[in-house]
Amino acid sequence: MTSYISQSDDEGDRTSDGFSDNDVDEHTTPSAASSRVAASQPTFSANTALDAYFLHASKVSRTSSNVFSQIIPPLSADEYASSIALSPYPSACPDFSASLASLHRRHFGRFIVELEEGFNLIFYGFGSKRNVLNEFATQSCRKRGHVVVVNGFQPSLTIKDVLLSIEKVPGLASLPLASNSADGQLRRISDFFSVSNRPLYLFIHNFDAPVFRSSKARACLSPLISNFHIHIVASIDHINAPLLWSSSDTLTRKQPSTKGGGRGHAWLWHDLTTLSSYDTELSFADRSSLRGATPSSMAARLQSAPTGDGGVNGAAMTETAAQHILASVTQKAQKLFAMVGNHQLDAMEEAGDASATQSEELAIAYDRVFNMARDNFIATNDTALRSLLGEFRDHGLVVITGASTLGGSELLWIPLRKERLARLLEWLKNH
To answer: Origin recognition complex subunit 2 winged-helix domain: from which residue to which, for each copy (predicted)?
Structure first.
């Protein structure tokens, strides 16, 4: 791997091996003489490509701790929607999208007839179908029955939320509830619409969302889909979405006498290409992560960590959601939030970074929060303090990590931007 080049010598009276007779003492043994010759012989080393490879591979590769999402956190759904609305750049082909939307509106009457004949409608095609389907719901379906719209693209959506939205139909809650489980809710919904004069039009945007892909979710919604008096209007975007249902479920017609016990989904497929951008659907995506709009974008990062203890629901925390949470808690809890928020706001001012929201440098240690709460007569013991923090932690308004790398204590911070946190504290002060 290493080549040695001897220095040639044509000077003086050197011998053939490159040294004079006086260089070797006559009393020196042959082995010592040869080693002395080798040591005094000038050499040059040249690293080969193989040497360079092993030298490079011997170094430890370390991942940088400068995470982009901590330096510039993603926009919330409200901020993303506001930025899109104020954007001076139009969509790629607004005229063509408007023409397609106008063409689809002409088929609203046909869609109504198909629904009344016992079919369910599922729409596919490139582009957001949300606006067209919402127009269909408000212009055509609302006159004929009850309308419930479900936004499946929201990461925090659950099957329980879908059932609760349906139970808001006037008169449905008056029926007795056999049990508080999902089966009891499904039974009451099916019984109500089986005798109701006004059917239910259930619109589900992004029916191929992760919340609807599990076998448990499909089994839960199957009684609603197969009910003759409940009409499903859904949209899909995933190319493998048809694999969610078997061929028998897809092709079997609904039975007019069924109360939801059948398995006939009776899907009719319609191309609803609009070429419109997915602005609303993508507003809930985590643009700093390759996982995209997976449930609980920030919560997944916290809960997957060994020390993570923060409980955050799927959607990103917004200013409006924070106001609703603060309005529903006690005055002591509001004082505690204001105390933590003011401390974090001061840390942001000192750091001079208006965007960082998840850095441990901006967090406050739990021990310090406890001392401040005790001094201000907010909580006198650990149990009372954790009880006050529990509501904020469960809703994601306050994030708690297991331990700090410096002091070993739990850390608390509020996952809001500097300007939004300042407005929220000002709102809390005035209320």
So the answer is: 358-419
Task: Say how far apart CA 1 and CA 199 lie, in whole Å.
Answer: 83
DSSP 119-163: -EEEEE-SS--HHHHHHHIIIIITTTSEEEEEETT-TT--HHHHH
Q: Which SS3 state, helix, strand or coil, does residue 411 take?
A: strand
- Separation between Cα atoms, residue 121 and residue 133, nearest integer Å: 11
The domain made up of 94-271 is a member of CATH 3.40.50.2000: no
H/E run at residue 17: none
Which residue carries 């840390």 as its tokens? Answer: 347
Q: Residue 421 in contact with residue 345, Cβ under 8 Å? A: yes
Q: Taking Cα atoms as reference points, which of 424, 402, 422, 400 lies closest to residue 413?
A: 400
Provide CB contacts within 8 A for 94, sequence distance 6+.
Answer: none
* Residue 146 region by backbone torsions, left for phi larger than 0, else alpha for psi between -120 and 50, else beta: beta
Question: How many residues does the structure list for the chain?
Answer: 431
Domain residues of the chain, as ranges? 94-271, 319-430
Q: How confident is the model at residue 95 (pLDDT cuts 50, 70, 90)?
A: confident
Is the four-CA dihedral 171, 177, 181, 187 of positive or negative sign? negative
Q: How many CB atoms lie within 10 A of CB 185?
A: 22
Cβ-in-10-Å burial (0-12, 13-18, 19+) of 8 comes to exposed
Query: In degrees to the nearest 10, what's the CA dihedral of 83, 88, 89, 93?
Result: 110
Looking at residue 376, its amino acid is N
User: For residue range 97-153, what is the model confidence (pLDDT) as tens digits?
Assistant: 889 989 999 999 999 999 998 899 999 999 999 999 999 999 999 999 999 999 998
Dist. CA 321–CA 327, nearest whole Å: 10
Query: Does domain 319-430 sit in CATH 3.30.420?
Result: no
Residue of higher predicted confidence among 165 and 58: 165
| Distance, CA of 107 to CA of 103 (rounded, Å) | 8
Quick one: CA dihedral 402, 407, 413, 418, positive or negative?
Answer: negative
Same fold, 94-271 and 319-430: no
Two structure tokens written together for 363: 């967090």
